[in-house]
Amino acid sequence: MSFRTYHDLTGEDRSRLGEQVAAQRERVRERMREVRHVVAVVSGKGGVGKSWVAAALAIGLLDRGSERVGVLDADLKSPTAAGMLRARGPLKVGAAGVHPARGESGVHVMSSDLLLQDGSPLTWRTAGADAFIVRGVFEMGVLREFLGDVAWGALGWLLIDMPPDSDRVEDLMALVPTLAGVVAVTVPSEESRRSVQRAMRGARDAGAPLLGVVENMSGYACGGCGTVGPLFDGNAGDALAAEFDAPLLLRIPFLPGTGPSDAPFLSSRLADAVAGALA
Amino acid sequence: MKFLCVECDAQMEFTERRQPGDGTFAAAFRCPACGRHIAMLANPMESQLVGALGVKVGGRTLDEQPMEQTRISIAGAPGAFIDEAADGRSGPIGRPRWSAASLERLERVPSFVRGMVKKIYGEWAAEHGITEITPDAMDRARVELGLEGM
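Above: the input entities. Below: the structure tokens describing the complete assembly.
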């Protein structure tokens, strides 16, 4: 039997799946045209305070001037950005898209935390027992819609609070090739250095500019006298900065009970350092 | 994706899409030369792989709604979204009215996606010149648009 194949047929491909996917990408590009700087905050490891740093950076950038600032929480399974920035739903859906929540400090936020019931894990309605097969595709779809379907408006900065995996910057860059850069967050320990090193290599290999390293929990500040003593062994911040030829943007001591909006001096220094790295 | 009637050597035309609600997907095609119909039947996993991309086999007949894939795929919190122009029994002038029975049926749609689904039905009805959305119209829209379980 002989028959023609796809490209032999000149008639319309009514599904136009490729065009539908291209249209999704174009929506993201169109939305990101209104954003001056898109910066990813990565760690490669959970528990280093990446979301705290992202939130503090957002507040610091907002305090620098008149530019609007947004935070996109790409950590879909363990979202914390909305809580850190005290942003609440419900989310309004209008003709321009889904309006982001506005945190108490004025930072615009989109996070799966605003979509899920308190205490409920991220579950997929349509996936069933075979969820593991399509989970990654679903997650990329949500990230794409957080970028392209949220009415961010004109932003000076959009910070992407990335999940703690080393390959996610590559995924992000597929959607946002104009990514301005990556800020890596580590704690001083050797374990953290090794983990963040993978994330930074992944980001570098994906072609993302490395703006610098933030060493969080870099010593413990005594609540009484203010003296800073060691909290972890190691010098991950310096080591990563040297290895990747990127600046050590800031060391942040462990500050018990301090939220990102409670440390304006640190937020300001962080914002100045990141803005300086981009200049 | 294209379908070829080998006997006629003619590209078949898409005629209908169905999502019966069991996770499967069906699309019917007709040969313009001999009139033969065939149906492509996809199992739940195949349907899901395509659906996860946020695309519609057979093409889109309505614009994609904001965060449509997220709202359809995530088991989200009731009341997470407020859809502007989706509340109330009747919309602005020129928009179709909702019958009481259709609103009752709409109540069975998870609230996380209800506003979006209502908007989709409304746009479909407006496009088809339907002035009142009834359960029957919802059935037709559901089949045509592939709104599985909605």
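Note for the figure: Helices of chain A lie at 17-32, 50-64, 81-84, 131-148, 168-175, 190-205, 236-243, 264-278.
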